[in-house]
């Protein structure tokens, strides 16, 4: 277990080795928050309620995204695809280390580091934009929010890791798969850009059977107190089932991939 | 050069198909978002559904055309770092042209007919006359001129500071703010987007012209901004070239 903890200091040093890269990625996040903040601020400028949100709740959603997104969607596991395509995976196979846990621990380390920065960004943006903010005090909602965050973190890691296994069969397609699955589908269907309940009930019902709403949308909805105890438990159950399904699928794909892996490029 | 760039991507049809599907799906998600939003609210910053979609399409048109034409800017930094830029300078061809436009992006190229068709389709809802269409086309070309000025600026800064990747992505992030009407932003932000980054000139002015709101003064200033920025960027490029040390080669 000690070796996985060592990864945290390695991950911290690697992130800070490319300081400009790290700071730019944080800076770029701000633009997205600006766009979403002003968009909703404009929509709710007349103090009317839309889609079941008032001004305070929608802007809490936008600010909540900054923190929840950092915790759930920040990842370095997208490098798995490149390591398999270049044959660098071999370096790990000869070490007494579990490749899945290696990247999971690195991801947690990176998330932690980004969380510290996003907290300061949150304060700065809060000072500049001065939005009305909803503070949740119900312990059930807070516990449900934390539980849903853990589910979201594990789910997203599994989605990224599975997408990263594509180069076992198609090294050239890895970036394309990640673009579609992570940067398009996850970005939209997780609720990163807008709350998913702007969609009609039927679309929401279909989406609730996919893993994507459990990444960002459900945690923030729980924080806002818009999902009751039954909804929290139902969401946790569906999210947990998806973890089991993805875990089973990931193991099958990994086993099949290792059988065809030829360490090309080494 | 562009032919080689096209052939290298066309040889990977699976990748091409994935990116094409990804871009179309992303567009459809935004379309659905705008549709359901305005169905509930009635308008966005005073624009109705067709007008908002048209602004979104104008943003896409400018963005995708710029990415299609200037894709090689994204590959400029490695050339500076490795010293490969020396070889570009030795060739009997404009180093700027070669660095900017030698690798047009086939993925954006195949997306363009889709965006063009939708832009024409939604323009018809705005009921434009000949003058509006001609001015809109000229203003979109002007937006490309401004976009090219920013790409040249980023490359020139890249020569001096060796940092290109970050600057070009920050430019893209700022441009992305033009997806929705500029009127959604607060006063300070609008001032920033009008004067510092001419998003107003690049997206809002052409869109408004097509909607029939022609202000000839604003149109004239927009063209002036385009020409001045382009010539300033060329001047800065020449200054940057004088600072190139070829240290890596």
Structure description:
The complex is a heterodimer of chains A (266) and B (249). Chain A contains 11 helices and no strands. Chain A has 266 residues and is an all-alpha fold. Chain A has one domain. In chain A, helix 7 runs antiparallel to helix 8. Chain A is globular. The mean pLDDT of chain A is 88. With 249 residues, chain B is mainly alpha-helical. Chain B is built from 12 helices and no strands. The mean pLDDT of chain B is 87. The chains are: A mainly alpha (266), B mainly alpha (249).
Which secondary structure elements does this structure contain, and how are they paired or packed?
The complex is a heterodimer of chains A (266) and B (249).
Chain A: H1 2-17, H2 19-43, H3 55-73, H4 79-86, H5 89-93, H6 99-129, H7 139-164, H8 174-189, H9 201-207, H10 217-223, H11 229-260
Chain B: H1 2-10, H2 13-41, H3 49-70, H4 76-82, H5 85-90, H6 95-101, H7 106-125, H8 130-161, H9 165-176, H10 187-196, H11 199-210, H12 216-243
Helix pairs in contact in B: 2-7, 3-7, 3-8, 3-11, 8-11, 8-12, 11-12
Query: Order of SSEs of chain A, N→C?
Result: HHHHHHHHHHH
> Helical segment tally of chain A?
11
What class would the helix/strand composition of chain A place it in? mainly alpha
Instruction: Give the overall shape of chain A, derived from the CA principal axes.
Output: globular
């Amino acid at each position: 277990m000690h070796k996985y903890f060592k990864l945290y200091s390695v991950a911290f040093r690697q992130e800070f080795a490319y300081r400009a890269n790290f700071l730019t990625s944080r800076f770029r996040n701000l633009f997205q928050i600006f766009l979403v903040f002003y968009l909703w601020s404009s929509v709710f400028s007349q103090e009317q309620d839309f889609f079941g949100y008032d001004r305070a709740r929608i802007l809490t959603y936008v600010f909540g995204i900054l923190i929840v997104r950092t915790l759930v969607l920040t990842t370095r596991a997208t490098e798995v695809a490149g390591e398999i395509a270049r044959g660098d995976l071999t370096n790990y196979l000869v070490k007494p280390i579990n490749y899945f846990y290696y990247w999971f621990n690195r991801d947690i380390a990176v998330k932690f580091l980004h969380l510290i920065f996003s907290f300061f960004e949150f304060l700065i943006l809060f000072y500049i934009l001065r939005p009305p903010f909803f503070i949740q005090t119900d312990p059930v909602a807070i516990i449900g929010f934390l539980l849903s965050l853990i589910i979201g973190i594990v789910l997203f890691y599994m989605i990224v890791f599975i997408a990263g296994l594509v180069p076992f069969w198609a090294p050239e397609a890895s970036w394309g798969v990640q673009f579609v699955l992570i940067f398009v589908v996850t970005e939209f269907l997780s609720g990163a850009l807008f709350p998913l309940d702007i969609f009609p009930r039927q679309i929401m019902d279909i989406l609730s059977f996919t893993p994507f709403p459990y990444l960002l949308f459900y945690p923030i909805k729980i924080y806002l107190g818009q999902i009751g105890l039954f909804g929290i438990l139902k969401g946790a159950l569906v999210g947990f089932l998806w973890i089991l399904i993805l875990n089973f699928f990931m193991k099958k794909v990994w086993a099949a991939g290792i059988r065809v892996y030829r360490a090309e490029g080494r | 050069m562009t032919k080689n760039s096209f052939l290298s991507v066309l040889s990977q049809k699976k990748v091409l198909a994935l990116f094409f599907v990804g871009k179309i799906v992303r567009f459809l998600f935004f379309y659905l978002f705008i549709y359901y939003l305005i169905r509930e609210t009635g308008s966005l910053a005073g624009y109705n559904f067709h007008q908002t979609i048209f602004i979104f399409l104008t943003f896409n048109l400018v963005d995708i055309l710029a990415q299609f034409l200037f894709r090689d800017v994204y590959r400029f930094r490695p050339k500076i770092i490795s010293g490969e830029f020396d070889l570009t300078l030795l060739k009997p061809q404009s180093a700027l042209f070669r660095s900017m436009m030698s690798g047009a992006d086939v993925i954006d190229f195949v997306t363009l007919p889709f965006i063009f068709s939708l832009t024409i389709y939604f323009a018809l809802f705005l009921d434009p006359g000949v003058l509006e269409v001609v001015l809109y086309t000229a203003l979109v070309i002007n937006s490309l001129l401004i976009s090219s000025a920013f790409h040249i600026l980023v490359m020139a800064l890249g020569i001096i500071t060796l940092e290109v990747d970050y600057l070009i992505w920050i430019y893209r992030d700022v441009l992305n703010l033009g997806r929705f009407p500029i009127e959604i932003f607060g006063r300070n932000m609008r001032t920033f987007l009008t004067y510092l980054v001419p998003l107003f000139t690049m997206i809002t002015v052409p869109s408004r012209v097509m909607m029939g709101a022609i202000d000839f003064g604003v149109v004239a200033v927009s063209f002036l901004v385009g020409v001045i920025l382009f010539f300033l960027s060329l001047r800065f490029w020449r200054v940057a070239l004088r600072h190139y040390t070829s240290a890596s080669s």
